[in-house]
Amino acid sequence: MENGEDIKVLGTWPSPFVIRVKIALNMKGIVYESLEEVEGLPYKSELLLKSNPIYKKVPVLIHGGKPLCESLIILQYIDEAFTIDGASSLLPSCPYDSALARFWAFYLDDKWFPSLIGILKAKTKEAKEESKKQVEQGLELLEEAFKKISKGKRWFNGDKIGYLDLAFGSHLGWLKAIEKSENLNLFDEKKTPNLIEWAQCFLSDDNVKKVMHEIDKFVEYGHKLKIKWGVAN
Amino acid sequence: MANEEVKLYGMTLSPFVLRVEWALKLKHIEYEYVNEDLKNKSPQLLHYNPVHKQVPVLVHNGKPICESTLILEYIDDVWKTSCPLLPSDPHEKAVARFWAKFAEEKCLHSSFDVISNAGEELQKAVEELQQNLKTLEGYLQGKKFFGGDIIGLVDIVAGWIPCWLPMIEELVGVTIVDEEHLPLIKAWMHDILELDVVKKTMPPLDKTAAHMKAIRENVLAAKST
């Protein structure tokens, strides 16, 4: 990385999509300015609207004045633009392993996370139960994927946290918060023992702890969202 | 590459499968095409794609890769030397990935809304698709293709537009892309259709039009009950 290259991250603290970008930057030892979109405001900052005019969403990474959007794309950019040596790659060098990591990351964001948030949004007991079932089924798939992909190591990416660990781990704040607020156990000691251990390791990692807020903050924020969605008072 | 076994599980009428074929042909990769009947999926397909059970699936030396845009990137990663689909500069690569995602999520999905609606809802869906195509057109500014002088990832992902959109327009009886409002997209559509790889793989127009008509009729009938 060039010295003096200006790196900014536009984000909000509860967003898993922002969390993963910040952890990745921390892991690569990259210094960046964190610009928080203030929660609760009805409008978005001018910088956000200018940097991401199409989706108007966080995260946005602004590197040397050039904005990039979409968190999984940003993770790949961070990996490609800031590789110091092969050992610190977020994505595996083998194209097949890389494709697998991307497949599961996309599944997590496209299918699994909406089901997870669906538990909070549910207006009926049946809807909540259905979302919970989808989350649990997804976790079982991910447990099997972990066994194959990790090849006996600690992380999906092997010896170090990688792209898929970040894609999944960034959702743990919400997973733990929803378990607490809805009085659920989404991980299962018998069905997802590897993921339980993996999640504990992830949340204990220093680079993650710098970014991930306490679970109670997520719980509090989740309650505000439920009020906004009309499912709580 | 010698001794490479490449199989593509697909379906003739699928734009997701077609884009993978383009990439394979552009890179001169020999492959076996396995046609799937989606109403009666083969055990191999279900084995290779147990999560989504969909085509396309690329099986390379026995290992399956699913999701068409992931397959395109995989092909580009493995067969690096010929016809790169993505720029080498990390920033430009990220920008190309962004536009490929936009073309997929906003343009392709808007087209489904067009096929699935009638009356006022159809008009709204058409306007939204036109708006999204206008946004996509911005990335074409000053270039023949999204990839520059030769086609790249975004052209391939958006490749359904020149092949399918004229049929959609005929099906719903509305012009969606015209020279006045989307001049660059119109010109790009023409240039894509001139490419050898596209001419050789054009889907059978009659069958595709009939298939789309059947989908539209089913969806509209379901909505009115």
As laid out across the biggest beta sheet of chain A, the strand order is: 2-1-3-4
Summed up, the helix count of chain A is 10
Look at the helices and sheets of chain B and give the structural class.
alpha+beta
Q: Characterize the largest beta sheet of chain A: strand count, sense, and whether it forms a barrel.
A: 4 strands, mixed
The arrangement of helices and strands of chain A along the chain is EHEHEEHHHHHHHH
Overall 3D form of chain B: globular
Uncertain ranges of chain A? none
Query: In terms of quaternary structure, what is this?
Result: heterodimer
Short description:
Chain A: Its EC number is 2.5.1.18. Chain A has 233 residues and is α+β, with helices and mostly antiparallel strands. Chain A has ten helices and four strands.
Task: Tell me what you see in this structure.
The complex is a heterodimer of chains A (233) and B (225). Chain A has ten helices and four strands. The longest helix of chain A has 27 residues, at 95-121. With 233 residues, chain A is of the alpha+beta class. Chain A is globular, with a radius of gyration of 18 Å. Chain A has helices spanning 16-27, 46-51, 71-81, 95-121, 125-150, 163-169, 172-181, 193-204, 206-209, 215-228; strands spanning 7-11, 33-36, 60-63, 66-69. Chain A starts with 6 loop residues before the first strand and ends in a 5-residue tail after the last helix. In chain A, helix 1 links the parallel strand 1 (7-11) and strand 2 (33-36). Chain A has a four-stranded mixed beta sheet with strand order 2-1-3-4, with helices on one face. In chain A, helix 1 (16-27) packs parallel to helix 3, helix 4 packs antiparallel against helix 5 (125-150) and helix 7 (172-181) packs across helix 10. Chain B has 225 residues and is α+β, with helices and mostly antiparallel strands. Chain B contains ten helices and four strands. The longest helix of chain B is centred in the middle third of the chain and has 26 residues, at 90-115. Chain B is globular. Chain B has helices spanning 15-26, 43-48, 68-78, 90-115, 119-137, 153-157, 160-172, 183-193, 196-201, 205-224, and strands at residues 6-10, 32-35, 57-60, 63-66. In chain B, strands 2-1-3-4 form a four-stranded mixed beta sheet, covered by helices on one side. The A-B interface holds A 54, 63, 66, 68-70, 73-74, 76-77, 80-81, 95-96, 98-99, 102-103, 106-107, 141 and B 51, 60, 63, 65-67, 70-71, 73-74, 77-78, 90-91, 93-95, 97-98, 101-102, 135. Chain A: Its EC number is 2.5.1.18. Chain A: Keywords: Transferase.
